[in-house]
Amino acid sequence: MCQSAVKPNGTTDPQNEFGNVLENYKRIIYNVENAKAKYRSADDNVSIMAVTKTVAPEKINFAISQGITLLGENRVQEYLSKKDQYDKTAQVHMIGRLQTNKVKYIINEVAMIQSVDSIKLAKEINRLAVKNDRVMDVLLEINIGDEASKSGVAAEGLDELIYEAAQLENVRIKGLMAIPPVGCGEDMFDKMHSIFLRVKEMAVPGVSMETLSMGMSGDYELAIKHGSNLVRIGTALFGARNYLEG
Ligand SMILES: *Cc1c(COP(=O)(O)O)cnc(C)c1O
């Protein structure tokens, strides 16, 4: 049903301490603008998030110095070990699977949690947000491809989660997030966009559908075509990940 994935086009120049981050970033901006011009409106805002897993803090800070303002973190442990070295001008969002017992480590560190996929997790975020006297913005993650290996709430379970989580006073639902199966982009993005618009129409009190977070290195232009306004880019910005570092 799905074609094979487009190969992400981030490159690494061994002569350059920071790989080709600047060149890669310029190309991503160009492609995003191009996709907006082609499929959307030039006025539409599409945020580019730099996904930092396995990337050294110096390289992340270089990306920030070139204009990146949003970082995406996958792993709590890795983030905690690196965060003190980050340039604090960029906002940080948690985008990886989050266990309820780890929320306490990030409740005062991140501006948003994009990977909320159960009422249990939402309640723990709320409990700690109350305790820390803050409000946490969240996105609800949908397992749009119904993949056993992936996190996210099933599309059929979304409404129940929305109505329950909307009751939590210190959690604010700001939109939806998805990681569609590789190579399945177009159909899945379209499906996500429909769900996003449907939830927007539901107009649940306290729920604002502002952010549709989808699209990664290999498919962000297609995601933009289908309504994404936050693309999460790792490889195409920083080059191939070296898991030995991570
Ligand atoms: C790793 C990751 C990305 C970025 O993936 P690339 O293909 O390297 O751009 C985006 N979102 C999530 C949730 C990820 O874990």
UniProtKB/TrEMBL annotation:
Query: N6-(pyridoxal phosphate)lysine occurs at which residues?
Result: 53
Report domain Alanine racemase N-terminal positions: 26-241
Record-linked InterPro entries: Ala_racemase_N, PLP-binding_barrel, PyrdxlP_homeostasis
Q: Which domain of life is it from?
A: Bacteria
Pfam families the record matches: Ala_racemase_N
Q: Which UniProt keywords apply?
A: Pyridoxal phosphate
What are the required cofactors? pyridoxal 5'-phosphate
Record keywords: NADP included? no
Q: GO molecular function, one example?
A: pyridoxal phosphate binding
PANTHER family assigned to the protein according to its UniProt record, in alphabetical order: PROLINE SYNTHETASE CO-TRANSCRIBED BACTERIAL HOMOLOG PROTEIN, PYRIDOXAL PHOSPHATE HOMEOSTASIS PROTEIN
Report the function annotation for this chain: Pyridoxal 5'-phosphate (PLP)-binding protein, which is involved in PLP homeostasis.
Family statement: Belongs to the pyridoxal phosphate-binding protein YggS/PROSC family.
Report what the protein is called. Pyridoxal phosphate homeostasis protein
- Organism of origin is Ruminococcus albus 8
